[in-house]
Amino acid sequence: MxxxxxxxxxxxxxxxxxxxxxxxxxxxxxxxLRGGGFAGRVTLVGAEPHPPYDRPSLSKRVxxxxxxxxxxxxxxxxxxxxxxxxxxxxxxLDRDTKTLTLDDGTALGFDxxxxxxxxxxxxxxxxxxxxxxxxxxxxxxxxxxELQARLAARxxxxxxxxxxxxxxxxxxxxxxxxxxxxxVERSAAPLAGALGxxxxxxxxxxxxxxxxxxxxxxxxxxxxxxADGRLxxxxxxxxxxxxxxxxxxxxxxxxxxxxLAGSGLAIDxxxxxxxxxxxAVDTDGRPCDDILVAGDVACWPxxxxxxxxxxxxxxxxxxxxxxxxxxxxxxxxxxxxxxPTFWSNQFGVNIKVVGVPGxxxxxxxxxxxxxxAAFVAAYGRGGRIIGALAVNTPRALDAYAEMIxxxxxxxxxxxxxxxxxxxxxxxxxxxxxx
Amino acid sequence: MRVMVDLAxxxxxxxxxxxxxxIFEISGREVLEYDSAPSDEWRLHLERARAACPVQAITIGxxxxxxxxxxxxxxxxxxxxxMGVLR
Lengths: 434, 87
Hints:
By secondary structure, chain A is α/β, with parallel strands linked by helices. Chain A is built from 8 helices and 29 strands. Chain B has 2 helices and 5 strands.
């Protein structure tokens, strides 16, 4: 079963495809390979002991205790026929010998490699404070189980550090469980990084309306524990000291790229760079035919957006995985040009986003009403629509995706029956590019 | 049996709720929730829900991962070459 590769770009039955990362991206790439008729060997390498599971439900239903962590396992196609190396992290890649080294010393040869190692939760920077019992992140299934158990034990107060989507979802679950929760956010509003200041302010009103103690433009000065190393108090920059038993660190994610040091691939804080066909780019800027990248760990050029795009969306993981599988099977024939899209459910509200609102310089509500918590807001940059936010209006979004893809001017002329009169265009602080 | 709904694609039409109320529900105004590991007795309802979804967002399959029986790869392990590399 030795897998000598054929000529570049030529698909050989009996090849060995190794996928590093056994989560949503890795699973969908493997499925797409089989769906495309690949009959060779597929090996999925995963650092966690668990088979692929559904991450979005962790910060929602699993945390609320309405779904068991065991139930998060994803479905797979019947004929996947994959080899699994779970509980083994990849520690090195040798491109010359096309060999991957695992943390148990195993050397794994490949003909094609897909890098799908994703991200991990950014840790609280003070290591002594981070080690206190009760200071947690939520990224993995094991994280969710531990946090769910701590919430079920009815802590006096939960501290959430960071009001991005994960932090806001955790706060939502706390209120659903009737737990006191304080959310500390360094910027002026929750979700502002992804949705801008205006929508962030609306999200802030939603959170406070549900009883969240939301403190914006505030930071955590210190987490303090007792003699047994259990979290007891938090000191905030607004001068308050709060008694808390649980602190959830929700400060975003860090790309799992360290194992690729010395591999000669182009890597930075945005992830592993690849071309539109998911081929990893080396430090000389050349795409590698045999090494592909997909999912949260990838950054790539998108025809609609300047620079490189790096997103942490479920939808992107699935779609980019399929493009990577196509490139493995057929070469560079299908570019990954899907619009970024994601969703969140929090405080009983369904949020869907398409495009990249975080890069906008203007925003306007084009349908519905913010007061009634059912609206669509469009985002523009340089007079062109680049994103849209749908709150409790999921069926409206396809039309906006079409406008974004066709680069319509902003604000688009919709003549929607439920448009506000007049439509007000608000200026947003222009975020840094990239 | 596992269920996955592509919630980026889902537009909360709710057809799945009518077809398989044991598995799907709309919570709040537009939030779809579902049992991702339902009992096999609802298989027929689940198949109907998948077929009824206007945006084809529902996937059904066995749980991903190594087979439950032995936790081993489903085919023979690869042999190491002279350099000790598994091919």
